[in-house]
Amino acid sequence: MESRLLHQAGGLRTYVLLLDKGEEAVTSIASFAADNHLAGAAVRAAGGCREVRLGYYEPVLSRYRHSHFSGQHEVLALIGDIVDNGGRSELHARAVLGRKDSTTLGGHLERLIVFPKLEAVLTETPAHLHRAVDPETGMAFIAPGEM
Known about the structure:
globular
């Protein structure tokens, strides 16, 4: 992965990341955030992938249902946040993927193998907008009282 600091103002930073063939995006982006002490950031990305695992939260079961897709897909939109999960930086994101027949897939992003590239922008968020993982649901929310 290549990275570059694009902007810094008021103590907040914006980075661009370029992930390469074969990289696993969820762990690569979370590791970058941890290495650069990003406790909270908005993430948006686009590119391509050859493998993806998506989740769908089942409220009745209080857990995610997982779906795995192989083959080339366009990452049309990947949006989410770097969140604090017990002191560990974690990517909590949703993705919309395009298929060759122009249909789409979407869901909670759990794993994504890049092919050929994935371009991501991380924009650090002020402390009062940081999200944390809710232990009951595993979902990331702005903490109550932080708004």
